[in-house]
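ok trying again, last paste got cut off:
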Amino acid sequence: MSYGDAEPPPGPVIPCVGAVIKDSAGRLLLIKRGHEPGAGLWSLPGGRIKPNETDIEAVQRETKEETGLVVKTGRLIGQVQRPGLADAVIDIKDYAATVTGGTLTAGDDAADARWVAPGDLRALPLTEGLAEILADWGVI
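nice, full thing came through this time. structure:
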């Protein structure tokens, strides 16, 4: 879901980031959400941007918190808006990122974290529209 210029968002807008991370085998890093919205669904690592935090800092912090991995943030890949709780709008900027350290382990609000081959994505319960938007952006 994306809100156009002619239609104002229905509630507060929550600025968030996501990390699009692939390994050398072309697998995508996903986390299983541990909390609403989307508890139990697989998505990209990411979350809310804290006050006075840059997008780059938020990508690095959220990825470390949710996956245990240290990343270098790259270019902006795309931006989407999704419905949140209580009529909020989650405004997500997804950035490419590269792993520079750490050990993969689920943490923070992630119930699980794993590398997933593009062909296996549709077998997982993904957050709404994730596979389609990643395909549109040429990620998968």
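cool. The chain has a mean pLDDT of 91. Residues 68 and 103 are 6 Å apart (CA to CA).
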